[in-house]
Amino acid sequence: MARPLRIEYPNAFYHVTSRGNEQKDIFKSRKDREKFLSYLESAVERYGAVIHVWCLMTNHYHLLLETPEGNLSQIMRHINGAYTTYFNLKRKRAGHLFQGRYKAILVEANEYAAELSRYIHLNPVRAGIVALPEEYEWSSYRCYIGLTNVPTWFKTGFILDNFSGNDAKAKYLEFVADMLKQKGVSPLNRVVASTILGSADFVKRVSKNHVGKNTTDRNMPAVKQLSRPTLDAILNVVGELIAEEDALLRNVGIYFCHRYSGSRLREIGERFGLSEAAVAQASRRLRAASGKDIRIRGLLEQVAEKLSLSAVET
């Protein structure tokens, strides 16, 4: 399995998950959960972590945290390492507690923090453990709606600031309840390269400033995917070069989205109102046509140049 891409810089936000080895339970008692929370507190005190959301399930946990000092790896070594030591000593066992390395998704906080907090707080409901999130003791939701005192090490202000006024807690409760009434789509479905959740501008900015600086990272699949043009970038360039011929514009757009964006066929199909198979078929047809039609070939080269692609396959 390829190692995950880690992007670390000051004041970054992350959605972090870590699962038990072989899907086994990592929390077996109230004392276990309380001990884990104590390690969140010490991560705040020792390493400057800012914990915005937490949810402890049975065989995994979720965190939304901020790293003012750009030291996610250090924070997570402390949390997972200290808890593993505690868990193993208590049960006279040895070996790994967690399944590989934790998963950390870099988040554009202003756009997605509130939505992610709702997703995290609804985990116990989706798992069928409780009917309402406030019934679950082991998440931060009860702190957000005023049912539990907020510990000094935990911060609710950043999320609640999205809900202006004196009744921010009531508005947040309503915000979460709205998702209970509908089958909401997980915000994590919009993660790019299994690494970043954010707007196209955020992904571009992070890719430019923080990705691929180390030679050991440059050939990682996630780095290569982040360097690809987005669907929006491709369609904007195609639209600039092909102003009037709708059919050709559509087919060139499908071709470049299919071959160069790194997006899933389903996502591309949704953009064009096509099935996944139809996307692949349209791309193949245009590729074949470019080998026979000099004009189409020239258009493909112009689009490729605008998108800074090194070559167009035919």
Protein architecture, described:
Strands 2-3-1-4-5 form a five-stranded mixed β-sheet, sandwiched between helices. The protein is an alpha+beta fold and 314 residues long. Residues 218-223 and 310-314 have low confidence and may be disordered. It has two domains: 12-196, Transposase IS200-like (Alpha-Beta Plaits, 2-Layer Sandwich), CATH 3.30.70; 229-306, Chromosomal Replication Initiator Protein Dnaa, Chain: A (Orthogonal Bundle), CATH 1.10.1750. A hairpin with a 3-residue loop joins strand 2 and strand 3. It has 14 helices and five strands.
Can I get a quick summary?
This protein has 314 residues and is an alpha+beta fold. It has 2 domains: 12-196, Alpha-Beta Plaits; 229-306, DnaA protein, C-terminal DNA-binding domain (Chromosomal Replication Initiator Protein Dnaa, Chain: A).
CATH architecture of the largest domain: 2-Layer Sandwich
Please state the oligomeric state of the protein chains shown: single chain
Mean pLDDT: 87
State the separation between the terminal residues, measured CA to CA.
32 Å
CATH class call of the largest domain: Alpha Beta
Write the layout of secondary structure elements.
Blueprint: E1 12-19, H1 30-47, E2 50-56, E3 60-67, H2 72-91, E4 103-107, H3 109-121, H4 123-126, H5 141-144, H6 157-160, H7 168-180, E5 196-197, H8 200-210, H9 221-226, H10 231-241, H11 246-260, H12 265-272, H13 276-290, H14 294-306
Parallel strand pairs: 4-5
Antiparallel strand pairs: 1-3, 1-4, 2-3
Helix pairs in contact: 1-2, 10-11, 10-14, 11-13, 12-13
